C-alpha cells in the first residue's frame, strides 16, 4: 500500500447559510499529480485554503503531509509548498534574492540555501539572470522560478493555484515538465487549473460542482465513464448541472 | 534571530531598490531645514521704517538714533505730513511708521505724557506684531534712561524679557517641529504602506502559508525605517547646527532616546493603520490625514498652542508630535534633563503601548 500524503473526510466550510465546500472526502498518494477542477465559484479555492491552513473548516477532518490541519497548523505549513497565479515573486528583488528569502523562511541553513539555489539556477538555465530583477523576467520564467522556489524545501505536497495562467502553450508545456519532475522525485502535486488539456496530464482529477466533488478518477476512466473523448467534455457535462452562479 | 535577520535583509533590499523614494526620504529633512531656516522665517530683520517727526527736538532725535542703531530697523525716510504715511505703506517698502506728536520733549518732561504713534503693516499679522514689539521695547528703553536720570519716585517700568530665545530667533523653534514631522511621516506612512503592499500583491497570502513568524515579520518592516529616521535626526541636528548655529543645550543622548521613542510611536501607528486598510492608497491618505494635518496645525509646530481655542488645545493633547516638540524644545533650547520631561515622555510611552495593543489585537494570522 502506498503512502497517503493527504486525507480529507467530510471537509465542510460554511459562510453563514452558504455552504461553500460540502462534505468533500479524498486521499492523495505520494508522488501523485492531482488535478482539482471546477468552475469559478465551485469552491475550489475555499477547499484549497483549508488544506493550506489559512482558513478554518466548519466541520470534517483532514491531515496534510501527515499532520492534522486543526492542531498542527505550523507543521503542516513547514511541509507544504504553495504557489499562486496571483503572486509570483517579489518583483523588486533579484532572482537570487528571492530564492534566498523564501528558502530562509522555511528554515534552510545558509549551506543548504547555497546548494539548493545552485541546483535550481542550473536546472532553470538562469545562470546569467541570477542578478536580474524578477520584474524584468518573462512571465513564463517567473512561473517556473516561482514553482521551483515553492518546492525548494522539499515539501511532501505542493499546492498550485492556477499556476500557468496567461502564458502560451509552449511555456505551459515547459512548466509541466517541472511538475512531472517534482512528482517523480516524490512530491505530491495538487493543482487547480482552467486548462482542460492540463487536466489530461494529471494522474487523477476531481471535478467540483456547487461545493461537492462530482467526479474523481483518472482522466482515462472518467472519459470512459462519461463516454466522451476529452476531460473538457466531462467537465462541461458536469458543470451544466451547476445551480450556483460564478462569483 | 536568523529568521529576523532574513526579513530585515529583504526589507532593506526593497528600500535600496527604490532609489527615488530613498532619496526623497533622506533629502526631505535637509530641504525642510533650508526652507524653514531661510525662507519661512518669522524673524524680522532690517525692517524699513518711516518717521514723521512733528517735534524735531532732542528727545525725538535720540529715539530715532536708537532705531537707526538697531539692526532690526532701517530708517527709510522721513515723512513730512500725515498724508505721506499711507503713501509710504502703499509703496510696500516700509513695515512701520513712527509718528511723534508736536512738542514731544516738552510734554514728556512737564506733563509726563508724550505720545508716539506706531503704525504697522498688519497685512502679515505676525510680522506686524513682531515689529511693534521691537519698536516698543526700544522706546521703553529710552523711557527708562530718562526716568533714571530724572530720578522720579514713581516710574512705570515695563520689562519685556524674552526667555531662552532672547533674539526671538525663529529657527530655534522650527527644528523640533521639522524633526517631529519628518519622523512621523517616514515611519508611520512607510511602515503602513509596506505592510499593505504585501496584502495588495498577495505576497502576504504566500507568507501566511509558510511557517513564517508574523510578529517578527511585521517588526522587521519597521527596522530599516527606524534606522533611516535616526539618520534623519542626525542630519537635521547637523544642518541646523552648521547653518543656523542652533545650540544643543541638553544631552544629545537624551535627544536620540526621545526620538527613538517617538519613532516607535509613529511605527506603531503605522502598524495600526495597516491593519485596518487593504490598499496602499488608503493607508497613505490615512497616515497623512491622521498625522500630517494634526501635526502641522495642532502640535504647536506652526501655530502656538496657547492661542488655540480650548477644544483644539484638548485635541492637540492626543497628537504625539505635540509632546515630542515640547520635549525636544526643552532639551535643545532649555537644556532640560529627563527629570523635567518625564511626564511628556510617559505620555508618549503610553501612546506607544496603546497603539501596539490595538495593532496586535487586530492582527490576524489567518486570512478571512
What is the topology?
The complex is a heterodimer of chains A (247) and B (368).
Chain A: E1 4-15, E2 18-29, E3 33-38, H1 44-51, E4 59-64, E5 67-68, H2 73-78, E6 80-84, H3 95-105, H4 110-124, H5 139-150, E7 157-161, H6 169-184, E8 188-192, H7 196-199, E9 204-209, E10 212-217, H8 219-226, H9 231-239
Parallel strand pairs in A: 3-8, 3-9, 6-7, 7-8
Antiparallel strand pairs in A: 1-2, 1-4, 4-5, 9-10
Helix pairs in contact in A: 3-4, 5-6
Chain B: H1 2-17, H2 19-39, E1 47-53, H3 58-69, E2 73-79, H4 82-90, E3 96-100, H5 104-111, E4 116-120, H6 125-150, H7 170-200, H8 203-209, H9 214-244, H10 252-276, H11 280-298, H12 310-316, H13 320-332, H14 338-362
Parallel strand pairs in B: 1-2, 1-3
Antiparallel strand pairs in B: 3-4
Helix pairs in contact in B: 1-9, 2-7, 2-9, 3-6, 7-9, 7-10, 7-11, 7-13, 9-10, 10-13, 10-14, 13-14
Plain-language structure description:
The complex is a heterodimer of chains A (247) and B (368). Chain A is of the alpha/beta class and 247 residues long. Helix content of chain A is 36%, strand content 26%. Chain A has nine helices and ten strands. In chain A, the strands form two sheets. Chain A has a six-stranded mixed sheet, with helices on both faces. A four-stranded antiparallel sheet of chain A has the order 2-1-4-5. The longest helix of chain A has 16 residues. In chain A, 43% of the residues are buried. The mean pLDDT of chain A is 90. Chain B has two domains: 232 residues, no CATH class; 104 residues, abc type-2 transporter like domain (abc type-2 transporter like fold), CATH 3.40.1710. Chain B is an alpha/beta fold and 368 residues long. Chain B is elongated and about 90 Å long. Chain B contains 14 helices and four strands. Classes of the chains: A alpha/beta (247), B alpha/beta (368). Chains A and B meet through helix 2, strand 6 and helix 3 of A and helix 1 and helix 8 of B.
Amino acid at each position: 500500500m502506498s503512502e497517503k500524503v493527504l486525507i480529507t473526510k467530510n471537509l465542510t466550510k460554511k459562510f453563514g447559510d452558504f455552504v461553500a465546500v460540502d462534505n468533500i472526502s479524498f486521499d492523495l498518494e505520494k508522488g501523485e499529480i492531482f488535478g482539482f477542477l471546477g468552475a469559478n465559484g465551485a469552491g475550489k479555492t475555499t477547499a484549497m485554503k483549508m488544506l493550506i491552513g489559512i482558513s478554518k473548516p466548519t466541520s470534517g477532518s483532514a491531515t496534510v503531509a501527515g499532520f492534522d490541519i486543526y492542531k498542527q497548523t505550523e507543521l503542516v505549513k513547514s511541509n507544504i509548498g504553495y504557489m499562486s497565479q496571483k503572486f509570483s515573486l517579489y518583483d523588486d528583488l533579484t532572482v537570487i534574492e528571492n530564492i534566498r528569502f523564501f528558502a530562509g523562511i522555511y528554515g534552510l541553513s545558509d549551506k543548504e540555501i547555497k546548494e539548493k539555489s545552485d541546483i535550481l539556477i542550473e536546472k532553470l538555465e538562469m545562470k546569467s539572470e541570477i542578478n536580474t530583477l524578477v520584474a524584468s523576467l518573462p512571465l513564463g520564467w517567473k512561473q517556473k522560478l516561482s514553482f521551483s522556489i515553492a518546492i525548494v524545501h522539499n515539501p511532501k505536497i505542493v499546492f498550485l493555484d492556477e499556476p500557468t495562467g496567461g502564458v502560451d502553450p509552449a511555456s505551459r508545456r515547459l512548466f509541466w515538465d517541472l511538475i512531472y519532475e517534482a512528482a517523480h522525485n516524490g512530491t505530491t502535486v495538487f493543482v487547480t487549473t482552467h486548462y482542460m488539456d492540463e487536466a489530461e496530464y494529471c494522474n487523477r482529477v476531481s471535478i467540483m460542482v456547487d461545493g461537492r466533488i462530482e467526479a474523481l478518477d483518472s482522466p482515462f476512466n472518467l472519459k470512459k465513464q462519461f463516454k466522451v473523448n476529452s476531460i473538457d467534455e466531462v467537465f462541461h457535462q458536469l458543470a451544466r448541472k451547476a445551480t450556483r452562479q460564478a462569483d | 534571530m536568523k529568521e529576523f535577520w532574513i526579513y530585515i535583509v529583504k526589507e532593506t533590499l526593497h528600500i535600496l531598490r527604490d532609489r527615488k523614494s530613498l532619496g526623497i526620504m533622506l533629502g526631505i529633512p535637509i530641504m525642510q531645514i533650508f526652507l524653514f531656516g531661510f525662507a519661512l522665517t518669522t524673524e524680522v530683520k532690517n525692517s524699513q521704517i518711516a518717521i514723521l517727526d512733528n517735534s524735531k527736538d532732542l528727545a525725538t532725535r535720540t529715539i530715532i538714533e536708537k532705531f537707526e542703531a538697531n539692526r532690526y530697523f532701517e530708517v527709510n525716510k522721513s515723512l513730512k505730513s500725515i498724508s505721506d504715511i499711507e503713501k509710504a505703506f502703499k509703496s510696500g517698502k516700509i513695515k512701520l511708521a513712527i509718528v511723534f506728536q508736536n512738542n514731544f520733549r516738552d510734554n514728556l518732561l512737564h506733563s509726563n505724557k508724550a505720545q508716539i504713534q506706531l503704525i504697522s503693516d498688519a497685512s502679515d499679522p505676525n510680522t506686524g506684531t513682531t515689529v511693534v514689539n521691537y519698536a516698543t521695547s526700544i522706546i521703553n528703553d529710552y523711557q527708562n534712561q530718562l526716568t533714571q536720570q530724572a530720578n522720579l519716585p514713581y516710574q512705570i517700568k515695563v520689562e519685556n524679557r524674552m526667555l531662552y530665545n532672547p533674539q526671538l530667533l525663529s529657527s530655534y523653534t522650527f527644528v523640533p517641529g521639522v524633526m517631529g514631522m519628518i519622523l512621523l511621516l517616514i515611519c508611520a506612512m512607510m511602515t503602513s504602506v509596506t505592510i499593505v503592499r504585501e496584502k495588495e500583491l498577495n505576497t502576504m497570502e504566500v507568507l501566511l502559508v509558510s511557517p513564517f513568524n508574523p510578529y517578527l515579520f511585521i517588526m522587521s518592516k519597521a527596522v530599516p525605517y527606524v534606522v533611516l529616521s535616526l539618520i534623519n535626526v542626525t542630519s537635521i541636528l547637523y544642518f541646523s547646527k552648521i547653518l543656523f548655529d542652533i545650540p544643543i543645550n541638553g544631552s544629545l543622548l537624551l535627544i536620540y532616546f526621545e526620538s527613538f521613542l517617538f519613532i516607535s510611536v509613529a511605527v506603531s501607528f503605522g502598524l495600526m493603520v495597516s491593519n485596518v486598510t487593504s490598499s496602499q492608497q488608503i493607508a497613505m491618505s490615512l497616515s497623512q490625514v491622521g498625522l500630517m494635518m494634526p501635526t502641522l496645525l495642532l502640535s504647536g509646530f506652526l501655530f502656538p498652542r496657547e492661542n488655540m481655542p480650548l477644544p483644539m488645545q484638548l485635541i492637540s493633547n492626543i497628537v504625539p508630535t505635540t509632546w515630542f516638540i515640547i520635549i525636544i524644545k526643552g532639551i535643545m533650547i532649555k537644556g532640560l534633563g529627563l527629570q523635567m520631561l518625564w511626564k511628556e515622555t510617559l505620555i508618549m510611552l503610553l501612546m506607544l503601548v496603546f497603539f501596539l495593543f490595538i495593532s496586535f489585537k487586530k492582527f490576524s494570522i489567518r486570512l478571512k
